[in-house]
TrEMBL record:
AMP-dependent synthetase/ligase domain ranges (all copies): 20-420
Organism annotation: Lactuca saligna
Gene3D superfamilies xrefs: 3.30.300.30, N-terminal domain of ligase-like
Alphabetical GO biological process terms: phenylpropanoid metabolic process
Highest classification ranks of the organism: Eukaryota, Viridiplantae, Streptophyta, Embryophyta, Tracheophyta
Protein name per its UniProtKB record: 4-coumarate--CoA ligase
Family in the record: Belongs to the ATP-dependent AMP-binding enzyme family.
Pathway where this protein functions: Phytoalexin biosynthesis; 3,4',5-trihydroxystilbene biosynthesis; 3,4',5-trihydroxystilbene from trans-4-coumarate: step 1/2
Length: 566
């Protein structure tokens, strides 16, 4: 068999973009997207994506260029997950919870050629683009109008004009002015032959994560990795054909854990929500007969504690990830008719790669025991080659006793290509021993199931978003009244955990003043909700602040009650 080799017939580059073509053929007349009074079929979604991709190329977008998107879960946001890479470009979904400074840094770092902006975020976009230094090419801005109509008062024109002026003034002479998303759809070619990857290892997406450092890192994924994680996620979650999927998970969050492309693969219906409350969620669940949804534990918590909570008309499968959901929250949510699954993943692996695979015999256990089991992360999915927990000193796998802790490491085809323009950080994460080091601490139980015992030491997970304590500390250190500061996680009944700052002062400052100081310089979700003043922070013999002591203090505080609006 030595003479057998790959050929052009059997070595076509893997890409999830082909799922859309198939959906248009198999599920053409079925609903693809439902948003308020807007409805599209898979035939229409396929055509609209081709038209946008065609217009992108017509506006000068070339293979390998980066196109950024700053939008909530709108139909256009979903379409852009296909349209941007179909133009040959690399898709960069931006976190809508970030501040203008951070977004500006990301746009410059990835050298975005174009920026799609939700009208509801236009002020944030204006501030971000305005921060570009003179002479640095600004991205062309395209406005997603969210069904904004042009009335006698010229509302739509005013919005476009403000962004047009911003895009053109002070930039290099050949920068294009903005247009609107629907203009790109209308002017595009529905027969456009979309640009396939030359190699399945070609970059397809860039997602920024701050990780444990104060500077964001651009996680680059290939067409191959996204194809594999998408298929893997559908299989692991046992998603059937034509599910009805409710988008409460932001599509910018690791590309919706790959289910943006996954819904096309199975011909599902995407129910889009802009912003939502628990009342909105329950209304959508029953009105559209939703079957599946994803979200951070904070969404589970919001649902479980909502006064609008009532038994569902039909079971809804809920996949959650991030910080482990409290067993009590799982119990209350499942009592309403949700079927909760728990998984583990990170931006660097494009989705869920460890899940709590359920065993039939567990159904005979008391409900409280079942909820505790569901709070564990579980075992590797089929698409991941290997997962382990390594002892930091020996580098060997820890005992499967549920007690011995180590760092969680991963190996598989869905791992990132690396961090954009950061070979050092890439090498620190993806080491020569073949593992991706997550920085998360966990144990392995005797049955082989993984459980996270602590997140990376400096990372706080609030509402499913990672907060770098280093970044928060660096801001507080700029306040002239602050002498020393350390930021750790404090339990929160709604958000899971929130930043808690321990501060020693050299001047005068109140808790309210320091919180306001941070709010003016950080995204709101990164701002400490608690400030604890200490005469001196506890230190080791070498002078390092004992964060583990402060964590214990914060954990001993009564959990806070957060805001339930998403």
């Amino acid at each position: 068999m030595d003479q057998l080799r790959p050929t052009s017939a059997n070595s076509i580059a893997l890409t999830p973009l082909t799922f859309l073509e198939r959906a248009a053929t198999v599920y053409g007349d079925c609903i693809s997207i439902q948003y308020n009074n807007t409805t599209f079929t898979w035939t229409q979604t396929h055509r609209r994506c081709l038209q946008v991709a065609s217009s992108l190329v017509g506006h000068g977008i070339q293979r390998g260029d980066v196109v950024s998107v700053l939008a909530f879960n709108l139909p256009a946001m979903y379409e852009l997950q296909f349209a941007v890479p179909m133009s040959g470009a690399v898709l960069n979904n931006l976190n809508t919870r970030l501040d203008a400074r951070t977004i500006s840094v990301m746009l410059r770092h990835c050298e975005a050629k174009m920026l799609f902006v939700d009208t509801h975020l236009r002020v944030l976009a204006e501030e971000a683009v305005a921060r570009f230094p003179p002479g640095i090419r600004r991205p062309v801005v395209v406005l997603i109008t969210d069904n904004v109509s042009v009335g006698n008062d010229g509302t739509k024109d005013k919005i476009v004009d403000s962004l047009t002026m911003l895009s053109c003034v002070g930039s290099v002479k050949d920068v294009d002015c903005v247009t609107t998303y629907e203009d790109l759809v209308e002017k595009g070619d529905s027969n456009f032959r979309w640009i396939r990857p030359v190699n399945e290892w070609d970059p397809m997406t860039i997602n920024y994560t701050s990780g444990t450092t104060s500077s964001p890192k651009g996680v680059v994924h290939s067409h191959r990795a996204i194809f594999i994680i998408t298929i893997d996620s559908l299989v692991d979650w046992s998603v059937p054909k034509q599910p009805v999927y409710l988008w409460t998970l932001p599509m910018f969050h690791s590309n919706g854990w790959s289910f943006t492309w996954g819904m096309a693969a199975v011909g599902g219906t995407n129910i889009c929500l802009h912003k939502f409350t628990a009342e909105d969620v329950f209304s959508a669940l029953n009105r559209h007969n939703v079957t599946h949804m994803c979200g951070a534990p904070v969404v589970l918590n919001m649902i479980a504690k909502s006064p609008d909570a009532k038994p569902l008309n039909n079971p809804v499968h809920f996949l959650t990830g991030g910080a482990p959901p409290p067993a009590s929250v799982v119990l209350r949510t499942e009592a309403l008719g949700f079927v909760v699954s728990h998984g583990y993943g990170m931006t660097e692996v494009a989705g869920v790669v460890v899940s709590c695979a359920w065993k039939e015999k567990w159904n005979r256990l008391p409900v409280s025991n079942q909820s505790s089991l569901k709070a564990r992360q579980g075992v590797r999915t089929l698409g991941l080659t290997e997962v382990n927990v390594l002892d930091s000193k020996s580098g060997l796998g820890v005992k499967h006793d549920g007690l011995t802790q180590g760092e969680i490491v991963l190996k598989g085809a869905c791992l990132m290509l690396g961090y954009l323009k950061d070979p050092r950080a890439t090498a620190m994460c993806m080491r020569e021993d073949g593992w991706l080091y997550t920085g998360d601490v966990g144990v392995i139980h005797p049955d082989g199931y993984l459980e996270i015992k602590d997140r990376s030491k400096d990372v706080i997970i609030t509402g499913g978003e990672n907060v770098s304590s280093v970044e928060v500390e660096s801001v507080l250190y700029t306040n002239p009244a602050v002498h020393e500061v350390a930021v750790v996680a404090r339990p929160d009944k709604f958000w899971g955990e929130t930043p808690c700052a321990f501060v020693s002062l050299m001047g005068k400052a109140s808790m309210e003043e320091l919180i306001k100081y941070c709010r003016e310089r950080l995204p709101h979700y990164m701002v400490p909700k608690t400030v604890v003043f200490m005469e001196e922070l506890p230190k080791t013999a070498t002078g390092k602040i004992q964060k583990f002591t402060l964590r214990d203090i914060a954990k001993g505080m009564a959990p806070q009650s957060g805001n339930s609006s998403m």
